[in-house]
Each structure stands twice: as C-alpha cells, then as structure tokens.
Amino acid sequence: MTFLDYFASNWTDVADATLAHAVLVLQGLGLAVLIGVPVAVATYRTGAPRTAVLGFAGLLLTIPSYALFGLLITPLGLGTGPSVVALTMYALLPVLRNAVVGLRALDPAVVESARAMGMTRPRVLLTVELPLAWPVLLTGLRVATQLLLGIAAIAAAVNGPGLGNLILDGLASAGTPYAAYLTVEGCLGIVLLAVVFDLLFAGLNRLTTAKGLGA
Amino acid sequence: MTDATPGTETAERPMIRLDRLAKRYPGQAQAAVEELSLDIPEGRIVAFVGPSGCGKTTTMKLINRLIEPTSGRIHLDGQDVTELPVHELRRRIGYAIQSSGLFPHRTVADNIATVPRLLGWPRQRVTERVDELLTMVGLAPATYRDRYPKQLSGGQQQRVGVARALGGDPQVMLMDEPFGAIDPQNREALQDEFLRIQRTVRKTIVFVTHDIDEACRMGDLIAVFGENGKVRQYDTPERILAEPADEFVAAFIGSGAAVRRLSLTRLDALDVPEWPTVDADADPERRLAVARAQDREYCLLLDADRRPAGWLPTEEADTEPPSHFPVFSTLGPHSTLFDALDLMLSADTSTVVAVDDEGRYRGVLEMDTVRELINGERTAAGHGRLQEA
Ligand SMILES: Nc1ncnc2c1ncn2[C@@H]1O[C@H](COP(=O)(O)OP(=O)(O)OP(=O)(O)O)[C@@H](O)[C@H]1O
Ligand SMILES: [Mg+2]
C-alpha cells in the first residue's frame, strides 16, 4: 500500500485532526492577544514593569514544552484545557513584545499632536496608537502562530486535540508497516497549516494596514 | 519689564496671561522656566526666541497643559486654564509643530477634520471646513484631500499641519518652529503665506523659533528668552533691534541687527524727504527757475497726476521739449527700507522715488537717508505693523 492509498483510507481522520489543530492554535493565540495587548498597553510607557513583564513572558518560552504541558495536568486535568493554556503561555512573548515594540516605536510627535488636539487618552490609544502599532503587532501574531503550530503537536501527550495525535499514534506503532505514514500525515498537516496561516496573515496585513502606512 | 504688554499705545486685551509661571523637571537642578510673567495680546503673533534649551517649548506646552507647571497660573481669555477639562481646553488651542505630527494612517482631509469632529460639528460643516482650510493654505482640495501625509512634500505637510491646527477655528495657536524643517527659500514663502492667512484669521499666536530673523518677520512682539526661561526683553521687533535691553539680547541679535531693522521699516511709516519737483508741462522759464533754486543735479518731473515722469537735468532745464531720463527706481508704500537699499545697490543708483498706492510722488530716498536711519541719526516716524493692525 502506497502512502496515497493509505491517505485515501484515513483522510477524514487527518482532516478532522487538522481542523482541531488549527482551532487549538487559534484559541491559544486569541487568549494570548486578550492578555498580551492590554498588558502591553498598561506597561509600554513604564520602565521597570515593562521590563519585568517582558522578562516573565520570555521565561515562559524557555520552559521545555513537554514539561509545561505535563505540569498543567495537575491544575487543569487532561485534554483541551491544559493544551490551550500552554499554547497561550508560549504565544505571550511574541504578542506582548511586538505590541510593546510597536507602541514604543510610534513617532512621539504624532502622539503628542493627538493629545494636543484634545483627544482623550482612550481615544488616542484606539484611533492613533493601536492602528499605527498594528502592523508590528500583526507580525508578532504571525510569528506566534508559526511557533504554536509546531508546539501544539505536543498537546496529544496530554490527550489534547490536533495533529499531534497522528504523530503520536505513528510513533507508538513504530515497526508496523504503515506507522511512518501516520507520522508523515501529521507533519504534512502542520506544514499545510503553516502555509495557509502565512497566506492568511499576508492577506490580513494587506487588508488591514492603513493605506498611509507601509512602503 | 516682562509683565506689561509693550509697544502698544492702547492697552490691548491679553488673550493669554502667564503669571509667575515656573517649571522644574523632576531630577533637574535648574528650572526650565522660572518666574515667568507675560501677557500675550489678542490677535497678535508673539514670537518666543532664544538659544536652544532656554525653555521656549516648555513655556509653550504649559499653555495647553501638555506639561503641568510646578507653580504659577495661566489665564486664557480671562479664565484659569486649570478650570477647564484639559481636552476641552486643547480643542480651543491650535497646535502646530516642526515635524508636523500628521497622522500617517489618515488622509489629509481626516487629519484636518480631527478637531472639528472632536467638537461634534455636523458632517457637512466638517467637509466644508476642510476644503476651506486646504484652499487657505494653498492646496487644491480636489487634489490633496484624499492623499496620505507620506504622499506630500515636506512643505505641503507643513501646510496641512497648519490647516489642521486651524481646524476647529481656535482662538489661540501654539506653533513650535513650524517651518523649522523647511529649506530657507520655501520657508520664506510659507512665512509670507502664513502672515497673509493671519491677516484674515487674526488668531492669538505663540510662535516659537530660535531664529531671530524669523522672529522679526513673524512677530508683532518678540520675547527674547535667556537661560531658565527668563525673558530678557519683551518688545516689538523694531525696539528689540534698536535698543536691546542687555548684553545677552544684543549678543543674541548678533551683528546683522541694523540690516534686519531695514526690513522691518516700511516706507509708509517714514517721512520721506522732499526733492525738488517740477510739473512736466511747465514752461521752460518755470523749469529753469526751479532748477536754479536748488543745488541737485536733477529735478524730478511730475505728470498731471503727480506721478514721477522723469529726471530733469539741472543744466538743461529749459530745453524744449524737456530732455529727461526715465525713472526706473520707484517703490510703493509697502516696500521696506531693505527693498530700497537693495534697489539702490542692484540698479546702481543713489536715489529711489517713494510713491503711494496710486503711484503718486511722496518723496525721494537717498543712500544717505538710509545710512542715517541705520545709524539711528534719524528715526522712523513710527513702526509699521502694530499701527497698521
Ligand atoms: N521632559 C523633560 N525632562 C527633563 N528635562 C527637560 C524635558 N524637556 C525639556 N527639558 C529641559 O528643559 C530645558 C528647556 O527645554 P525646552 O525644550 O523648553 O527648550 P527650547 O527653548 O524649546 O529649546 P530648543 O530651541 O532646542 O527647542 C532644557 O534644558 C531641557 O533639557
Ligand atoms: Mg523647542
């Protein structure tokens, strides 16, 4: 049986796992944005708090992924819960750092003008600072997504969803005739998702970056 | 010296009053602004000028509370600025800065519409206002309305910056070296254009610059800042150039003061000396009589409307028809002594005929007259701009 024959026999499983993988990554990313952007907004003008927050997020990224997923079983049990939380923790640094960098790189004269014209603080943030920082933040999201796509495969180890299950099954049945096919399917699914997400981000970037910005 | 409005004979209503204002940045030994009291009269341009780091920008930003003072009070139109919510105060004060600070992600029209929208103007009125302002700053609305700032030249961005500052029709404008990033030639054009706009809008303007030439051009009044935001002299450009209050001011004005004063003195503010004149259609005896009665080499021929018609050589005063040389160098009332000197040098002549708006003879300026004015041997009858306004 060739790889293609094998794929024809289980492609629905692969499709389901791919979809679940994408959803898992998006959940982690979404939570990271919900936490990271407000934290960035709250700390980017400060000195020590910003350094501390970025340092902490950086620390999270250094925890070996197997260990992190495992450690989360105790408080969160098995399945989707610990998987999403672990992915959120990994995505935090790229999201947070790019949001801070984007906000801090703004032309001070632009922000000062906004204040000097009588915009309130929330208005400056929502209509000037965040739209101007958006391209940098979006780059952070793109990087975080690529990072999470790979790490999300570990979720299978804590009974989480996604393509990791194919890879894990393949590894578990090593030695049987088609074991490698399963693992290859899992990896190809991740590569496919990486390409699709990248295209999506490129499109999003083009659609949402204000015309006055960019090259 | 600093707490009255100088140079104006009638007391003018102060639009901005700085009252013993001080600003000390945290962790700095020296105060950036110290005990500053200054009245800025309504409808005037007051130029803040001084060396780098002397507190001009700080003082300006205290007015719209971008910076909060350490002590002292600021009154805007009689009201303490701290009595208003800060964003309402700022919507009443136009703000234009050197780097323009335009929103790069918004079109020119949206940039200019910022304050009108914050003020809740109806859409139709905002659109009209944007087009009106674009026209005012010399940009065709149809061409520029939908452009983004990066699609404009530096000078055009600066114009949009000024238009945006005027957006909400504020009483007061704060301008921090608004033309500082523009090359000298275009800067002069922008300055002239802005003065033209100011003649119609009559805002009260604080204009920060470190260039004494620009201060003299733009300011109805000039405040010369020394270190620590201390105002060394607050007076009209003419008086600052003629009578610097102390050595610091004199040094800051520099050596070109005499020439600068020339460009501040308009011919209509001068008693232009008389010159022997004779009607062009007078008979030869009359011409000869006039010519003999004076010791100049030439008399000035005037036509029936008293317009200069030619120079009549004294030696040939009675030839018929009168032989004469054409008058090349005449200057109207809005020209300055600088223009007169410039004309004398470039046309290689020692006399310039001053005429009124209709081109009628007023008198003749000589190189010597200009020299006497430079040296202060003769005083101008008055100094032009404040009276004119
Ligand atoms: N945010 C700040 N924190 C601390 N010190 C400041 C700050 N802003 C300005 N200063 C100091 O206050 C003094 C006055 O600064 P200011 O910007 O008002 O000068 P300026 O007259 O506008 O100078 P320039 O012509 O160079 O623009 C300077 O000595 C400067 O170093
Ligand atoms: Mg300054």
TrEMBL record, chain A:
Provide the transmembrane region boundaries: 20-41, 53-78, 132-158, 178-201
In what way does this protein cross or attach to the membrane?
Multi-pass membrane protein
Q: Which PANTHER family match?
A: GLYCINE BETAINE/L-PROLINE TRANSPORT SYSTEM PERMEASE PROTEIN PROW, OSMOPROTECTANT IMPORT PERMEASE PROTEIN OSMW
Q: Name one Pfam family in it.
A: BPD_transp_1
Entry keywords, A to Z = Membrane, Transmembrane, Transmembrane helix, Transport
Where in or outside the cell it occurs: the entry states:
Cell membrane; Membrane
Task: Please list the residue ranges annotated as the ABC transmembrane type-1 domain.
Answer: 18-201
Q: What is this protein called?
A: ABC transporter permease
Which family does the UniProt entry place this protein in?
Belongs to the binding-protein-dependent transport system permease family.
What CDD domains does this protein map onto? Answer: TM_PBP2 (cd06261)
The organism encoding this protein is Streptomyces solicavernae
Source taxon at top rank: Bacteria
UniProtKB/TrEMBL annotation, chain B:
Segments forming domain ABC transporter: 16-253
Gene Ontology terms, MF aspect: ATP binding
Domain (CBS) ranges: 324-380
Keywords annotated in UniProt: ATP-binding, CBS domain, Nucleotide-binding, Transport
- What SMART domains has UniProt attached to this entry? AAA
For this protein, the record's Gene3D superfamilies field holds: CBS-domain, P-loop containing nucleotide triphosphate hydrolases
Query: What does the similarity note say?
Result: Belongs to the ABC transporter superfamily.
Q: What is this protein called?
A: ABC transporter ATP-binding protein
Naturally occurring in which organism (per UniProt): Streptomyces solicavernae
